[in-house]
Structures are given as C-alpha cells and as structure tokens.
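Before a colleague's protein record goes any further, I have to sign it off. Alongside the sequence sits a line of tokens, each denoting a local backbone shape. I want your independent view on whether this chain really folds as the tokens say. Where you disagree with what is written, explain briefly why. This is what I was given:
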Amino acid sequence: MEGKKLALVAIFCLTFSMLPSNTVSIAVMSVDLGSEWMKMAIVKPGVPMEIVLNKESRRKTPTAVCLKENERLFGDSALGMSVKNPKTVYLHLQSLLGKKHDNLQVALYQKRFPEHQLQEDPVRGTVYFKYSEEMQYTAEELLGMVLNYSCGLAQDFAEQPIKDAVITVPAFFNQAERRAVLQAARLAGLKVLQLINDNTAVALNYGVFRRKDIDNTAKNVMFYDMGSGSTTATIVTYQTVKTKESGTQPQLQIRGVGFDRGLGGFEMDLRLRDHLAKLFNEQKKSKKDVRENHRAMAKLLKEAQRLKTVLSANVDFMAQVEGLMDDIDFKSKVTRAEFENLCADLFERVPQPVKDALSAAEMTMNEIEQVILVGGATRVPKVQEVLLKAVEKEELGKNINADEAAAMGAVYQAAALSKAFKVKPFLVRDAAVFPIQVDFTRETEEEGIKSVKHNKRILFDRMAPYPQRKVITFNRYNTDFAFDINYGDLSFLTKEDISIFGSLNLTTVRLSGVDGSFLKHADAESKGIKAHFNMDESGVLLLDRVEAVFETVEEEKEEESTLTNVRLKLLCLIGDVEDEEEVPPESGTESQDKDNKEEAEKEKQEESEKNAAEEKTQKTEEEAGSKTETKEEQENKTNGEADAEKKEKPKKKSKISEDITVELLINDILDPTTDQLASSKKRLQDLTDRDVAKQEREKTLNSLEAFIFETQDKLYQEEFQLVVSEEEKDQISAKLREASEWMDEDGYTATTKQLREKLSKLKSLSKDMFFRVEERRKWPDHLAALESMLNTSTFFLRSAKMIPVDDQIFTDVELNLLEKVINETTTWKNETVAEQEKRSPQERPVLLSKDIESKLALLDREVNYLLNKAKFAKPKAKAKAKNGTSSDKSNGTSEEKTIPPTEEDPPAKSETPEEVQPGEAPPTVEDAAQTETDGQTPPTEEATTTGQAAKPAANDAGEL
C-alpha cells in the first residue's frame, strides 16, 4: 500500500512540475514564410510537432492581405478578392523587404503588379503602398499584418496564447532584409526566438527523422529547393560530434549555398498568364487589350497557376475562364510543350545553383551522396529532367515533404530554444552566405611623405559558421577614429544579383573618448582598441561593444629575508602535519536509557575507533619524524629555490578595460525610429481592434436574425403550442415581427450594443416559454432515472439488512439514514408528480429537472458510501476452538482468545488467521467485540497479498 502511495505521489509531483506556472503560455510556433505561401507548425504539451490548419482546414495559407475601406482579409479570402479587386490585395511582399525605391527588384514588382502605387519613403528611401491618402502602408507593416494573422491561426489551433516563434527566411537574405523581417515580427507582437534559413530548417527536419543513420562518418546531402519566388541549392554535412555538455550528438553543417533570386514557380505562372492573354487577344472577341484590364489579368493568373499544376501530370489541358472581360468567356488548349518553350530560358538556369553550391563548398558532385527535392516548383517535370542531368545521379530524392519540411524543422528548433520543452539535441552550424569585413584608414609617413593607407580585415568569410563572436583589435590608434563595416568580396554574384543586392556598405562606426582613455591610463601599456562583434543565431551582425585595453605591472613587496621565508615554509609544513595528526571526533552521544545489548555494541564500536585512531596517529608521527630528520636538507633546498624564484619570477600584470563611446551610422537601410515603430504598432492595433469589433457585430447580428426566425417557427410547433397561452403567443409574435421589421430598416446599420439589447429583450420575453418546453423534454429521462435509482437503493437496503449480526459491516445509523433518504425521495416524487399533473402546461412547473437531479445525487452518494465500505471491509477474526480437537494445540485449554496485533509488537506468522484450520470453531462474541474495540483486524490472506489490509480497517473503526 505504501509503495503504491509513493508511486502516485511521485507521478503527481512529476506532472505538477511540468505544468506551467500561473497561466504562462508554453506553446511555441514556427512560420515558414514563403513568397506565395506560408505554413505554420506548433509544439505544445501533448502535441510534439503538428502543422496548423487554417480556417478552411488547409495546411498552407496564401501570404496575402486585402485592405478595404472597412475590413481586412487574409489568406484564401484575400486571394479570392484579388480576382474581384486586385488593387486592394498585396502579394509577394517578401521581395520588397530591405529594398530602396531605386532597386531593380522594386521596378520588377511594379511591372508584375501595375495596379499598385509604390511610393518612396523620403526618410528611409524604402517603398510604401499608397491606396489613398489615408491608407498607406510599408511592406514591413503589411508583412506584420500577415504574421499577426498566422499567430492568430496558431493560437486557435493550439487553444492557448502563443508569442514565441521561429521564422524562416531565404538563405540569401542580407542584413537589411533580415532586419526588415524582425521589424515586421515586432509589429505583429511576436517574440522571435530565431530567424532560421529555410534550407537549414529543411536540413534539420531531414536529420531529426534520420538520427539513427547519422554516425561519425561525414555524409554530404544536397537539397534543391525551388519555390515560388527563388531557388536555392544547399550542401549539408551530417556527422556525429562530441560535446562537453551532452556527449556525442548528431550535427548538421551548411557547407555550400547556391541560389537564384528570380528562378521560381511564380515566374512560370506569369509567363503562362501572358501566353493566355495573347491567345485571348488573338481570338479577337473584344476590341480591348486584355493586358490593360487588371481584373482580367488577375483571373488569367489564377488560371495559369492551375494550368501549370495540371500540365505537370498531363501533356495538354483546356484553359478556360468564364466572363474574362466584358462578359466574354475564354477557352483555349495549352500543351506541355508550349509551356516548356515559354520557360526554356528558366530551365537553362536550373543547374547554376548546384554549381555555385559546389564551388562554395569546394566539393565535386562525386562527394554528394544524394540530391533531395524541396519546394513546389520542383514538381514540374522539366525541372526534374534538367536537374537530373546536372547532378549526374541515377535518381532524385523525393523522400521529404516538399511543402512542410521547412516549417517542421523550424518548429523543432523553436522547441529546442524554448525553456518549456526538452528535445533531443541536434547541433546546427549555419553559414553566412555573404562575407563581411572591416575597412579603416590610417595615416603613414615614408621618407617624410604622409599618405593615407586603406586597410581591411576579414570579419566573417564566405560560408563562415555562425553564431560566432569575433574581436578586431586596432593597435595604432590613440585618438578618436572611425571604421566601416562592409560586405566583402562578392565576385561570386552576377551583375544582376549585385544590383538587386543593394548597398554594399553596412555601417560606419565612430568612436569617441579614445584619447581620453589614453590620457587617463598614461602610465599603462596599451593593448589596443578592441571591437567585439557577434553574428547571432538569426544571422544578424551586431557590434556588442568597443573597449580600450591597457596593461599595468604590479610591484610585489620584497620579502624580509630568506631565513624568514624558510621559517614560514617550515611552520606551514609543521601545521600540515599537525592537521593530519588530528583524530576525527566521534559522532553524537548515545541516549543513556538504551538496553545492555546496545551499550555493549557501542563500547565495541568505540574501542575499534580508538584503535584505528592510534594506528593513524602512530603513522603520522613516523612521517613527521622522517620529515624532521631531513630538516637541514630542506633548509638548503628552500634557500636555493627562494633565490631562484626571486630572480626568475615574472612580474604580476593586471588588465584594465574602459568602454569607448560608439556611434553607428547605418549605410544600407535605416531602421525605423522608436516613434515610427510605436506609430506603426498603433495603426496595426487599431486595425485589429476594428476587425474584432466587426466580427463581434456580425456574430451578434447573426444571432439576432437566427433567434427571430427560429422563435417564429417554434411558436407553431406542437410542443410549444402546448405550453404557451394565446395571449402570450400573440405578445411574443408581435415583438418578433417588430424586431424583424426593425432589422430590415435599421438593423444592418445598428451598433453592436443596439443589437445586443434587442436580442436580450426578445430572449427575456420568451424565456418562460422555452423553460417550460425544456423541462417537459427532460421529465421522462429524469423520472425514469430516479425510479431506477429508488428500486436499486431499496433492493440494496433490503440485502444489507439480511446480513447476519455477526457478519454485519454496516451500522444501524447508516442503514437507517439510507432508508430515510429512500422514503423521503419516494414521498417527494409521488407528491410532486401528482401536483404537477394538476397544473396546466402553461403554468410554471413545480416538478423541476434540477430538483430531480439533486435527489438522484443524494441517493447515489448514500449508496456509493455503503458500497465502498463493503468493498474494503474485511471479515472479522475467527477465534480458536474451545476444545482440544485442534491439530496444532495439545494443551487442552478450555478457551482461547485471538489478541489483535499492535504496531509495536507485530504478530508472528504462526499467529495469523491464515493458519486457522477448517475444523476450528468460529470466534466468540467476546473475541469479536474485543477486535472491534481495538480497531485492529488481523489481515486476511487476500488483504495481505494486496498490501491493503490496515487502512480500510482503521477507517471503519474511526467511522464507528
């Protein structure tokens, strides 16, 4: 019994320790933020990793937002609105992040979506969308809306608040683009645990589910990811490594990355769309050019996306759009060959990311064991055909979920970073795609001619692993100076990539207070100006601090004399010897009231300890004697060592650090100011509040409409007509009719408060009618349950009273109480039912379902109490036979009593009831009474086996 108790307590404590304190949310999420689609995944207690379903129960959601004058739409709703009013829908926002207005990527976006007005921010130089004078939003704000929507979907799916998230970004995102995503997440109210490269997330997901296949032999795998907007080829090395914290663990290391920013499925969709527009114009069904109609082109783009998917499995397909323009239908046949001809130059670019990845990793294709396809656009047959030739493999790997791998890998990383979950370690070593260096100038003088020399130091090489910290030391500066942080050699990028890349200069760092620190520590030796850099887990470069470091020499006090030094050392030595001679004190004294046996054992133990102490003392004295004998030798040796130490001992140095004031001038994309961020947050929160209020109003409006129509219909149903009088019916009908007319005139423009008040009045008016109907519906089942409970209770009571007096386990008080409850319940039921039958159905009933439930609960409680007592009761002890017929008793005693065992003196085995022979007489009344009085019933054989003998008996005695 005690063992089971301890086990239950341990389980409870473990469960309690895993529960969140207060109401803190412990669920985490990931967002695979693609250019066209986004996928969310969550981890919460009881749910390891799961993809979030949106409101349409789909596993992926369009990265789209629709902004109208009085509402916002997201996901599939926004995408559907793009066909009706494309000017209000914003898509492919990822390509505008971290870009200035004069960037080629912005011009390309304007060409693809001519319905939008892209304006230049006068301060930051970035772009924003202008729908009207009141509606102007930046790409970061729109992306923040999308992220906030994704968080809402995840919270609804997880059924708890979520704030912590890991967000995927393309591996080729530079510093400005990564900071833009972080700004969008901040506007959405998300706490970003990490920005993880999407290719790294895919590699992590692949490795986590193949952990057993990873050993100390390096295995190189290439992931070829062609999504909607871009293509990335990544070479990953899997291998187990040893760590100090968790021993041998699997690790993935990004070795090489190649990419093409413009190669993706969306470009194929656009070419198909333009082809369909050309076919429509050639049919000459309209004099207008369909390419000038934004709405018609949006319809053709939607059909082109469907067409591309179908042509991946069919050689031809009939494209058709109803009412494309001016109520003219469009229908035309398109073949796969035509599609491949349209995208021929795109397919030629398929192998290039593979070559770039191999070059960055300094590997050949022979070293790659497998090439795995990721991304929706890899399903195009021509892409697989060209890629298979480029990688020179027998087949391409398709053993990973091309759509969800990144989201699942990112949410695993989120769980690993969260303190609420414990996951198996999987080490991740990501790599920086773009090198970063520090540039600075220094004045030099050669042969009397002063010149300025430009210097650069590589901070992070291409494919350098991160997170990582670096320190750059400037040794030749003693006055205030500045240096630049720029990108390094980007010769591996094409001219088009460079133009899209943006500014090659990151930050100018101005230092002040350098000369002051040198004046303050003029007597110290300068160790340079040290700048501490950190590339964090998100791949964002940070300058932690800059400090001036100096070194001073501390003079040690000269010792009094060599003889004094020797004496001190000898004293220390003697002191050590004395410490060893000490005998450990004995443990605490024993109590004086112990018996003779315990005192004897104590004396024996003390004697053995004394002998051991004497042996130890003798041994220590011998060691001390041997050390004393060589005292002269030690003195001579110590004198020589002291002289040598005095000559050779280095001087003690101390380090002094002083922080230098740092001023950062951002050269690529200016971050929003604190006021701008606060203003953007408020605007987005106002939109969210407006959406919530609108949803609440619509919900109330629908509830009011439904109540009016349903109640009007119910008034003519038989069960309602039975309980409502004509007067009451006319009154309710009049109010419902009045509310319906109000709805037609003013209801659809009324406020939420007005709608709630109207609904509340109607519910209050018809409350009694619904109550009477509900009660009559419940009566049959409730009365049947009560009748059944009464029969069962009566049978149980009758059976309990038939138990013989000697074996009775229930007291008279308990049985009388049950009988009283049965009688009172029966009387109440009969009287209340009779009273109810006299009443009209239109009156308030006296037979209430809640009263029946109360009577049922009371009966059930009383019967269950007695049943539980019977369940745990044990048979009373049997007394030994009075005559001498027992086989194990030969003394011929005339009477025996079974003395119950006590806690201090447990009974021996021979005294337990299990050994009572069948021929023995039952216990006497006196014995049984003695047993009950003591409250100690000897355990039966069954109770002894289960280990539950003592507790129920004690409970029964206490109740008696």
Notes: The CA atoms of residues 154 and 912 lie 64 Å apart. The two ends are 23 Å apart (CA to CA).
